[in-house]
Design brief:
434 residues; elongated
Amino acid sequence: MFGYYLNLAIRSFRRNRMLTALMVLAIALGIGACMTTLTVFRVLSGDPIPQKSERLFYVQIDPESLSGHIPGDEPIDQLTRFDAEELLRQKKAARQAMMVGGGAVVEAEGSTLKPFVESMRYTSADFFPMFDTPFLHGQGWSSSDDEGHARVAVIARPLNDKLFGGADSTGRTIRVEGTPLRVVGVLDAWAPKPKFYDLNTGRYDREEQVFIPFSTAMELKLGTSGSSNCFGSTPTSDSTALNAPCAWIQYWVELDSPAQARDYRSYLDNYSAQQKAAGRFERPPNTRLRNVMEWLDHRQVVPGDVRLQLWLALGFLLVCLLNTVGLLLAKFLRRSGEIGVRRALGASRAEIFKQCLAEAGAIGLAGGVLGLGLALLGLWAVRQRPTSYAALAHLDGSMLLLTFVLALVASLLAGLLPAWRAMQITPAVQLKSQ
């Protein structure tokens, strides 16, 4: 019967081409606008590390002075170097990593390339297993390398291709600001979006190409990037010094269960109390421990204008569906005579209802095809915008499927009322009018 209903729908389209075109266009406009904004929202709000996001936690403590203190207020986002190194030394989590972004001049020994500036990350050994970074060659460094300020580095695949032609470069040497560093590993493609582990150096910017032990970077006095929050009345000429009252380091821990998370939160409270007793902290313990998605939500990674655009697009789709309801109602009621004859020949109300819904669904699929083209055009326009996330606005397979599912569901919903009205037509009245 479905094939028969589809055949009737095609015949109806041919008889009422203008009305059909208006309905297809209305659905297409709504679907195009909705899928454009929904794709952008999905890109920005997705889980960047779904296999571990519930086990990775961002650490915050409150080392600031009492000036301007409001009990229970949010602590600063980053840690001081002293606190980060002390937490790392105590190793109370399954894994822990301190880190900060940076940049320096890079060159390869024996290369004919001129030295160039490259983005970097100064971190600790657990960074690589904690964030499941894939290795093309070699591996990360060890905790003993952290402690020994080892002259080692991990480089990303694009830099390896540039400096070494894609060959296995483990054991070879690169120079960072003139200091030779031995390559111990080459990362394969790894580009979490957003760059959740450090939201201060660009949420959707290019990934770092060189990873160096934090201790080594500090010893070499390599330049850092990102934000720094200095507090207190003690002036400092070097905000990166060990005892400087400045917060500029990100700190992540991996905890395998909710119980471990509770224990670690208690540990942070105890640590803060100890630092207050020692005179370093002035405020009472005020700590936070958020997993990846909680941290992204707290930092409002999805821009407010993107959320607004999504709601506006959904509202526009609703308006388009209401217009489609009116057009379908007019279309079906104009065929009252045809429907009355079918009812008189034995078609049940349920069959009339199915026939009308089949026609509405066919219109929805046609609108979905046109809406897909409009969505692709809309995403192309988004990619022309000067925003950091613009290049990510692409329609993947799941969103492609959702386009047609949404178009079909929307058209069927729009067809419910007109189909219900059509099946109420009384055959005797229609036959008498004929």
